[in-house]
Amino acid sequence: MTPPPRRLAGTLILAMAFLACVRADGWEPCVQVVPNITYVCMELNLSKVPSGIPSSAKHLDLSFNPLRVLARRSFSSFPELQVLDLSRCEIQDIKDDAFWGLDYLSTLILTGNPIQNLAPGTFSGLLSLQKLVAVEINLSSLENFPIRHLRTLKELNIAHNLIHSLKLPEYFSNLSNLGYLDLSNNKIQEIHHKDLHVLHDKPNLSLDLSLNPIDFIQPGAFDKMRLQGLTLRSNFDSAHVMKTCIYGLTGLEVHQLVLGEFKNERYVQEFDKSALEGLCNLTISEFRLAYLDDFPKNINGFFKCLVNASAVSLANLYIQSLEGLPNDLQWQSLELVKCKVNQFPMLELPSLKRYVFTANRGAISFSEFELKNLEFLDLSRNGMSFKGCCSQRDMGTTSLKYLDLSFNDVVTMSSNFLGLELLEHLDFQHSTLKQASEFSVFLSLSKLLYLDISYTHTEVAFHGIFSGLVSLQVLKMAGNSFKGNALSGIFTDLTNLTFLDLSMCQLEYVSQGVFDSLLKLQFLNMSHNKFISLDAFSFKPLHTLQILDFSFNKIVSSNGQELQHFPSNLTVLNLTQNPFDCSCKHQSFLQWIKDQRQLLVDAKNLECVMPPDMEGKLVLSFSNTTCQITKVIIIVTVVSVAVVSVIVGLVYKFYFHLMLLAGCKRYGRGENIYDAFVIYSSQDEDWVRNELVKNLEEGVPPFRLCLHYRDFIPGVAIAANIIQEGFHKSRKVIVVVSRHFIQSRWCIFEYEIAQTWQFLSSRSGIIFVVLQKLEKSLLRQQVELYRLLSRNTYLEWEDNVLGRHIFWRRLRKALMDGKAWTLEGTAGVENSQQETTALT
Ligand SMILES: *[C@@H]1O[C@H](CO)[C@@H](O)[C@H](O)[C@H]1NC(C)=O
Ligand SMILES: *[C@@H]1O[C@H](CO)[C@@H](O)[C@H](O)[C@H]1NC(C)=O
Ligand SMILES: *[C@@H]1O[C@H](CO)[C@@H](O)[C@H](O)[C@H]1NC(C)=O
Ligand SMILES: *[C@@H]1O[C@H](CO)[C@@H](O)[C@H](O)[C@H]1NC(C)=O
Ligand SMILES: *[C@@H]1O[C@H](CO)[C@@H](O)[C@H](O)[C@H]1NC(C)=O
Ligand SMILES: *[C@@H]1O[C@H](CO)[C@@H](O)[C@H](O)[C@H]1NC(C)=O
Ligand SMILES: *[C@@H]1O[C@H](CO)[C@@H](O)[C@H](O)[C@H]1NC(C)=O
Ligand SMILES: *[C@@H]1O[C@H](CO)[C@@H](O)[C@H](O)[C@H]1NC(C)=O
Ligand SMILES: *[C@@H]1O[C@H](CO)[C@@H](O)[C@H](O)[C@H]1NC(C)=O
Ligand SMILES: *[C@@H]1O[C@H](CO)[C@@H](O)[C@H](O)[C@H]1NC(C)=O
Ligand SMILES: *[C@@H]1O[C@H](CO)[C@@H](O)[C@H](O)[C@H]1NC(C)=O
Question: Which candidate in 58, 157, 406, 603 could, as Cys together with 182 as Cys, close a disulfide (CB 3.0–4.6 Å)?
């Protein structure tokens, strides 16, 4: 049934043709970086501007395509274009109005086109152009460069061309916004006074003349001229030329002067220390020097013409010593970047406010210096060690606000910033901090706003580590560790904190209340830790939290009920790269994820890892219905268990009642052998034997009492005895209430059973005999007893002749109630009782 080869081939060709059509119609083969906005069509062998790109495009990169010629209105279908890159498009010919219609174009890049024909109206219509990059376009003169009407132009880069003269055409005076002119790498050899006529009224211009082979500057050419910047790197082929050319700059007032060379382009071999002497006739605010091969060993006098500069920057130099700087230096800022030094340079510059010593080689350990007014100190990336840090003594200043010691070697925290209380910014990242968690290092830094101790090998063990940082807003401490991998209450003082990075800290737990004081926190990064569950409860106080990153943890699930406490102001929650458990028991968590998908990062790609049958499936595809059946089973089980528990509970609670019920049945015929069962405390046994038994059993008529010391069957459990022997065989119960009785637990136990019996037989069978006068308060402890006392027969024992007489009469009367009498005495009582009590 396979189709013949010829038909197959035909189908294929048709399909390919179809595909080709689709490609031609769409914006493909360009790369759509931002839909409708940014398109990159780099190196696609395009010979004309592609047509499928939306007219709303703002950024278009057509570099490295063989466009060759730009015809009129080549880009009129992109009226919104702001940035157009035509680098290395082999363009030789640009026609009039080529860029017509690009009213909003602000950047045009024509780098690397061998342009031979540039029509006078090439750039017409570019009403908003601010930046024109025409590097390496075979431009030999500015005279006919058709840019005179580009009044909005701010930056013109015509580096790497064939321009021979710095003489700027008159039309430059109409480019009033021009702030940056790059003429580097051209063919300018001589600069004459007459060339610079136009530059005189461009005081805001920065001019780059690097890599021009300058060998002559007419003295006075720059006199009374002001420039924003002048860059002269790799211009001179000998120290002598350099010196005379610098003299040629006499009279220039320049904000920033850059001298030196480039890494791979060295001209000056033997550098003369007096080369900079000519700078004395210039006014310079900022001076930069880079890649000077032969920087003097002894700088005595080298900087003498720069005493009035406010900022000096030295880069990529071999500085053997900074001793011998003039005393009257006014420098406020000094930068030493990527230099080679022999040791950490000694400095004594009272004027200095900002000192940057970074990425240098050769400084092994920090040594104290004296910079009285220093406010900003950056000593990062030197691989240096700090034996003591940090106090006023080390830095010789009390004004320090910014301190960066990051990317160094070991920093030993030996003092707590004594005298440096003004610090606002402190960075130690990627240096090794010693003793940082041994005392409250930052205690005095109540003005600190920013602290970075990321990757400093700090193990946080001490709770007071951040004490005193009441103003802190940003705390970065990624890549450290915590004792027991638990985050505990170290943030109590940080009430102004808005940013907290705790990523890569191997954290497993958050103790209770850790975030309670962080009422302004907006950003929290907990990624790359080892949390197992999303503990919503700890985040409850973070009402202002907006971004929470919990990616790359081991979060399986979360307690569903707690999720309602999740901060409500969250806008970004990153839970990617966690091993979610998509089983039914986490149903409410999974549902929560679905509900929150708006704020979850990459929600549609979150994957389940457990249980095995869900592995690799998407969390959002989890369906509740599969859980319904399981749920029913669970509910049934839970309900059954609950019912059984309740029954068991009830049985346990009413065990005696049930026993009684059973007992009732058994003894239900009312075999009352005894007239009364006596409940009493053993402490009152004397009274019971000597008074009660004597008077009732031996009196007339005699009563039969059930007394546990006498009548209980030995060996039978006491409770069963009481129930069987005591209650069921007795008509009445006499409770002997005394102080001992109330205090004795055993009596209370018996009494409770008696109550039950009363309840069951529903007759007022309890007679209370109160032996001593009892305080009300004592009685009230036994609420039930108190209540019964006031409801039932209640006799008070009085130990005097009259009192006894009345007592016995009343007790006998109470006991007689319901008793049937035969004259045959006690033996007959038992039998004749049956009929009467059967009524109960
Ligand atoms: C791009 O523009 C087209 C037409 O103007 C519009 O239909 C489409 O929604 C836009 N796409 C985006 C992502 O804005
Ligand atoms: C570029 O396109 C031309 C035709 O437009 C073709 O001749 C040439 O081979 C293509 N070059 C490459 C490298 O594809
Ligand atoms: C540069 O322009 C000149 C004419 O000004 C021309 O002779 C030369 O061939 C051009 N160079 C290149 C590489 O196009
Ligand atoms: C500068 O602009 C003015 C006013 O538009 C014009 O008259 C003058 O010719 C221009 N100068 C040059 C050199 O283009
Ligand atoms: C130069 O720049 C300053 C501030 O950047 C501005 O106030 C001043 O107007 C500018 N002068 C000229 C001539 O553009
Ligand atoms: C530099 O200025 C000093 C006076 O400030 C003057 O004597 C000297 O001639 C000047 N040098 C040059 C080359 O103009
Ligand atoms: C520095 O400024 C002072 C006072 O303004 C002036 O006397 C001195 O000549 C200046 N020094 C240099 C080298 O410019
Ligand atoms: C916390 O920040 C607020 C303003 O953001 C400020 O007014 C307050 O003084 C700060 N609290 C402390 C203790 O610095
Ligand atoms: C959180 O920290 C990790 C690792 O330190 C980092 O990759 C991630 O970008 C941070 N998250 C956010 C939201 O900045
Ligand atoms: C939540 O955010 C809104 C706006 O971003 C803000 O007005 C509100 O105060 C925030 N709520 C809390 C509790 O911070
Ligand atoms: C989590 O997502 C945020 C927002 O997309 C992102 O900035 C952050 O880098 C992500 N975290 C990690 C560790 O990739």
Answer: 157
Both tokens assigned to 821 = 């009498």
User: Which of the residue ranges 103-117, 246-260, 488-502, 633-647 would you say has the lowest mean pLDDT?
Assistant: 633-647
Q: At 66, phi and psi to the nearest 5?
A: -80, 70
Q: What is the CA radius of gyration of the chain?
A: 50
Q: Do residue 460 and residue 601 come from a single domain?
A: no
Q: Which of 397, 503, 496, 514 is nearest to 450 (CA)?
A: 496
Amino acid (one-letter) located at 524? L
Q: Are 221 and 191 in contact (CB under 8 A)?
A: yes
517 vs 380: CA distance, rounded Å:
32
636 lies in a domain? no
- 726: burial class by Cβ within 10 Å (0-12, 13-18, 19+)? buried
- Token digits for 753? 């059973």
Q: Which two structure tokens, joined as six digits, stand for 670?
A: 């009312």
Tokens of 807: 């007592």
CA distance 574 to 432: 30
Distant-in-sequence, close-in-space partners of 827: CB < 8 Å, separation ≥ 6: none
Report the C-alpha gap between 336 and 363 in whole angstroms. 12
Give the Cα separation of 206 and 226 in Å (integer). 10
How long, in residues, is the chain? 840
Q: What is the C-alpha to C-alpha distance for residues 336 and 359, in angstroms, rounded to an integer?
A: 8
C-alpha 433 – ligand 8 centre gap (Å): 28
Chain centroid to CA 821: how far?
Answer: 91
- In the structure, what pLDDT confidence band is assigned to residue 619 with cuts at 50, 70 and 90? confident
Q: What pLDDT, in 10s, does the model give residues 778-794?
A: 777 666 667 767 777 77
* CA 682 to the chain's CA centroid: 70
CB 716 within 8 A of CB 686: no
Per-residue pLDDT tens over the stretch 40-97:
999 899 998 888 899 999 999 999 999 999 999 999 999 999 999 999 999 999 999 9
Which residues have C-beta within 8 Å of that of residue 470, sequence separation ≥ 6? 446, 493, 494, 495, 496
- What pTM does this model have? 0.71
Same domain, 473 and 527: no
Residue 471 belongs to some domain of the structure: yes
Grade residue 754 by pLDDT with cuts at 50, 70 and 90.
Answer: low
Residue 597 belongs to some domain of the structure: yes
User: What is the separation, in whole angstroms, between the first and last Cα of the chain?
Assistant: 101
Distance CA 398, CA 375 (A): 8
Q: Tell which one of 501, 575, 599 to mutate to probe ligand 9, the residue whose CB is within 8 A of the most ligand atoms.
A: 501
**Pair (622, 715) in one structural domain:** no
Q: Which of 510, 529, 535, 523 is nearest to 577 (CA)?
A: 529
What is the percentage of the chain residues whose pLDDT exceeds 90?
47
Q: Whose CA is nearest to atom 6 of ligand 5?
A: 204
Q: How far does residue 499's CA lie from ligand 9's centre (Å)?
A: 12
State if residue 517 touches ligand 8 by the CB under 6 angstroms criterion.
Answer: no
* Span from the CA of 801 to the centroid of ligand 1 (angstroms): 115
Number of domains in the chain: 3
Domain of 757: which CATH number? Answer: 3.40.50.10140
Ligand 4: residue whose CA is nearest its atom 12: 171
Looking up tokens 């029913």, which residue turns up? 632
Number of H helices, E strands in the chain: 16, 45
